[in-house]
Amino acid sequence: MKVDLFDFHLPEELIAQVPLENRAASRLMVLDKETGKIKHEVFSEIIHYLREGDCLVLNDTKVLPARLFGVKKDTGANIEVLLLKQLQDNKWETLVKPAKRVKKGTVIEFGEGVLTAVCTEEAEHGGRVFQFTYDGIFYEILEQLGEMPLPPYIKEQLEDQDRYQTVYAKEPGSAAAPTAGLHFTEELLQQIAAKGVHIAFITLHVGLGTFRPVSSDDVEGHDMHAEFYLMNEETADLLNRVRENGGRIITVGTTSTRTLETIASAHNGRFIASSGWTDIFIYPGYQFKGINGMVTNFHLPKSTLIMLVSALAGREHILLAYNTAVQEKYRFFSFGDAMLII
Fold first, then answer.
1. Of 82, 80, 86, 107, whose CA–CA distance to 95 is shortest?
2. 145 — alpha (psi -120 to 50), left (phi > 0) or beta?
3. In whole angstroms, what separates CA 162 from the centre of its chain?
4. Is the pLDDT at 92 greater than 90, yes or no?
5. Is the dihedral of CA 319, 151, 24, 308 positive or negative?
6. How far is Cα 198 from Cα 251, in angstroms, rounded to an integer?
7. Sign of torsion, CA 111 114 120 124?
8. Taking the chain, what is the end-to-end CA distance rounded to the nearest angstrom?
9. Residue 91: is it exposed, middle or buried by C-beta count within 10 angstroms (0-12/13-18/19+)?
10. Buried b (16+ CB within 10 A) or exposed e, 228-240
11. pLDDT band at 209, cuts 50/70/90?
12. Cis upstream peptide for 98 (omega within 30°)
């Protein structure tokens, strides 16, 4: 299957640079995955498409202020480090700019020595592994020294860092936000729960691999980077109960979707409390075992994310919906509008 099959024309002015003042005021395209029919709504109207007994599954990961600016101890050269994945207690996989200045053994200081890192391993595409040393609590030091790692297509400065967190973010560990969840307010979630819709939480720490461009011409040639996920017993039991009672399982975002499909695929369609690393790659031809619908944002052309939604709703339906979104001037990507596939 050729990657070019998932291409579409996206005018640059439709890439949202700043979040809306009201999270739930985004537009919502509702796509019928069986017929391809489209409705245009405001995001807060999503409540009318959820039924009593359904379950909405949210990813409660929290974005780390993972972009650090430091200097090489020996030369004073400026170095930018983006934390991607915690390998051990104080050892992290990172991306570095400019990578050519950082070799194995390079020492970088941040905040005038509050945090120090030694490069222990070099990888391709600017990847480096660092061993960090510090006094105190690492996440508190990150809050003090780090910046929110906004995607490269967002050029504007983010005035309120919390707008790149969901209102239910709880478990620190992501290099990027699970952006479909940015549309929910606490009030909207309360209204949804009051309707009798169950709300469940999983954790998947989003790595940059989710957003890496597909480098091969063929979809099947792409390798996904592994990301850590966790589902507790309470969520697993709730999801099994919802399914047994005929309710629908609707995930918020591709990260929640990939977590549920990873677990359901390993356990014959059932949900089991578990944690681990997933590199599941969902594209057309995949048979869904865990979910009935999903909330998602509008994704990059030829990305693994548009392939995932095409697996759920059909490539033709998705491309028609995306072309409609362009014509109707929907806002795209992290701070953009949303789609409900149901």
1. 82
2. alpha
3. 16
4. yes
5. positive
6. 12
7. negative
8. 25
9. middle
10. bbbbeeebbebbe
11. low
12. yes
3-state SS, residue 219 = helix
pLDDT tens across 135-177, in order? Answer: 999 999 999 999 988 887 888 888 888 999 999 999 999 988 9
Please name the amino acid found at residue 293: G
Query: Pick from 152, 142, 17: which is nearest to 67 by CA?
Result: 142
pLDDT for residue 266 is more than 90: yes
Tokens at residue 200, please? Answer: 């469940």
Structure tokens, 179: 């952006």
Alpha-helical regions (H) of the chain: 138-145, 186-194, 233-244, 254-266, 304-313, 315-327
Interaxial angle between packed helices 315-327 and 304-313, expressed in degrees from 0 to 180 and rounded to the nearest 10:
110
Six-digit token string for 57: 């599954």
Calpha distance 65→204 (Å, rounded): 17
Query: Quick check: 310 and 322 in contact, CB under 8 A?
Result: no
Length of the chain: 342
pLDDT of residue 224: 87
What is the pLDDT, as a whole number, of residue 212? 66
Mean pLDDT along residues 28-49: 98
pLDDT at 154: 86
Is the C-alpha dihedral spanning 293, 299, 304, 306 positive or negative?
A: positive
Report the relative pairing of strands 107-110 and 127-134 from DSSP bridges. unpaired
Residue 336 in this model has a pLDDT that exceeds 70: yes
pTM: 0.90
